[in-house]
User: What shape does this take?
Amino acid sequence: MHHRTATIQMIKDVLHEDYINLSVRRYEMSEDVQSGPCSVTVELQRGDDGPTETISGAGVGFVDALYHGLSDHYAREYPSLGTITFTGFEVKGHMNTSEGQGADAECLVSLVVVNTEERQFRFEDQGRSLVAAATKVVVEAAEYFINSERAYISAFRSMLDAKDRGRPDLIEVYTAQLAELVKTTSYSEVIERIKAETRT
Assistant: This one.
């Protein structure tokens, strides 16, 4: 399992104020349990007081529908979202937290994601609403890979700039950052896009 704590801090150090923080404000879900599919609409906010955007998706169940919506909305700009696979999804009820008959107990939702290098990433959220916790954990996963890709692009461009300026000290710093960030997912398409940009 890949430990994300150090990587997240590096991503934030690279992006600074450009780090994209996505928070869930509300959601709507509709599903015909006999024939499907499930339809989801989620309102997301960037930062504490940033703009909101509405994501809609459909799929086999809530999690599939939500990630389809996130991927369709962001994957054109962040293609790494299309390279990950969900391999684990667990819900654990903490029944001792109930204030009534148990239906209001807190639950822990865990999502395991695998990238193209077969590295596993676990995302978790806890709350009294199962669907809300599941929504937040899926959005957290998307947020992580979006920011990781953006940080990789930023570090790559900074390294090219350092080479142009003859700064081996900075090249070493950016190379170390890229070596860590590339563990998150496959960036072959991103690298080719950057190379194309630098050739124009």
Q: What stands out?
A: The longest helix spans residues 130-164. The chain is about 40% helix and 25% strand. The mean pLDDT is 88.
